[in-house]
Amino acid sequence: MTSLSSRPLVHGEAVGSVLLSQRALSLWGGIDPETGRIVDPRHDRCGETVSGRIFALPAEKGSSTGSAILLELARTGRAPAAIIVREPAVAIAVGAIVAGELYGRRIPVFCVDESGFAVLEDGETIRITEAGKIERTRGEP
Amino acid sequence: MLDGAAGEAVRFALSVVVSVAEALDAPDLISIEQAHIDACALMAPSNLDFVERLAEVGGRVLVPTTLSMVSLDLEHWEALGVPEAFSEPARRIADAYRKVGCVPAWTCAPYQGYLTPRYGQQIAWGESNAVAYANSVLGARTNRYPDYLDLCAAITGRVPNTGLHRAAHRRATVRIDAGKTRPEAWGSPAAWAAFGAWVGDRVGDRVPWIEGLGGARPSNDALKAFGAAAASFGAVFLFHLEGITPEACTQGSGVRPEWTAEIVQVRDSDLSASWDTMSAKATTAAVDAVILGCPHFSYGEFEELVGCIARRGDPRMHGNVRGLVFASAPMVELARRGGLLEPLQRFGWTLVRDTCPFHSPVVRGDARTVVTNSGKCAYYAPSELGADVRFGDLDACVEAAVTGRMERRESPW
Description:
The complex is a heterodimer of chains A (141) and B (413).
Chain A: E1 2-5, E2 7-10, E3 14-20, E4 54-57, H1 66-75, E5 82-85, H2 90-103, E6 109-111, H3 114-119, E7 125-128, E8 133-136
Helix pairs in contact in A: 1-2
Chain B: H1 8-23, E1 29-31, E2 34-37, H2 45-56, E3 65-67, H3 84-99, E4 123-125, H4 128-138, H5 149-156, E5 158-160, E6 174-177, H6 189-203, E7 208-211, H7 220-233, E8 240-241, E9 262-265, H8 268-277, E10 289-292, H9 299-311, E11 322-327, H10 329-337, H11 341-347, E12 350-353, E13 369-372, H12 375-385, E14 388-391, H13 394-403
Parallel strand pairs in B: 2-3, 2-4, 6-7, 6-9, 7-8, 10-11, 10-13, 11-12, 13-14
Antiparallel strand pairs in B: 1-5
Helix pairs in contact in B: 1-5, 2-3, 4-7, 6-7, 6-8, 7-12, 9-11
């Protein structure tokens, strides 16, 4: 087992399979809040569902309504298990924090550096600790 | 205050602000002098839960706070065919935001209405196009405030001291040289929208310094179109246009890029390609809807639209086309006083007040091909409305409204 370190942006722990994307995404217009599906045709993972996954994306972009999409996903139980970003993502952090305040369902968010992001593999199962340690069952030898 | 001594609303709001400050590694919090809230457009039941919770526990904004659009025309929703089931929560959300003390401006272009921020003022604004305009054209200082953080900032009067609130982050990090483009193209706001789309796509979230525009004197509406497109296609929330925007005209503002910054040449062919990209998916010339006022129409745009119709000899809207103009109710009232509404209504435009083509169900369902002069609308219409887009300037939009058709339009370059 190998591990990576990350900086927790929104505290919590998570286990799940990685949904890895290489493009920044605006959650509003990018994810359908009723299904959790990525619907932005310009995004490399369009058609995939973020619910229950550990959604890894380089950055957020676009409209300031991303936090509302995340909060609605939390309300209906369709939120990602956690989110990994390569740079601090404020709309994602706000949605994740308010989900905790309003529904008691805080979504953990972690920030990894470029080299950490580069080793993540799509579909791999990882466990992330409260301190931001990312434990991988496969990866580099 | 985090212990609840100042009330549950302040505890809730401050705990969000402080958690975000920690996530962003902010050194401290700073005071703000006003706020603009984007979360009042109904997205989902959670949106209502949020503001009703804060209103219920006595939340009250500490600084003057305006509201972005709501999800329906509050006075005319029945006539526009909005179902009761949709309108009920939307009206509740509008009531809750008024209850916490917000000004019901209901516009995504607050910089063309009440409470315009001043140069250098620290503010907390939501709505990406408004943020780009406030920072760049007015010289106020705000980050792009996401939904919920905007109201939490307004209730506490505090924000994390990060990003564009700090002078160092307002310095341009990339130079764009437009000196090789044809200057005649810079008259039309649609040209500025296509340029904004290109800039957003090219620079992502960097702060661009744009030079070589010669004597171009873009109108406020052109700058609105530029910023809205740059913030949609990229994450541009501050831009400097040399000789045009205030920090790029002020000696010692310190925003000029370092000489080592990357320089990007923009050519006519780039802008032409950007223009074409916005119509790339449209397969049919038949037009179902024309959308104007994204961001919200200004008085000047109403005047220009009336002029376009008059120059065509006062024609009427084609029977297959739904033509919608989005604006705030106060701006519509101003247009009425100016005698501008009568010719628009005679033509057949539907005026939609206080809301947005993407948050309100007025467009949904009846539009496969949408014509617009807005880069922002061109970006979001495919995913939010399931519609293909044909992009053109205001006159081309009027022509499409009259004929019910629009062929691929030549770019001005």
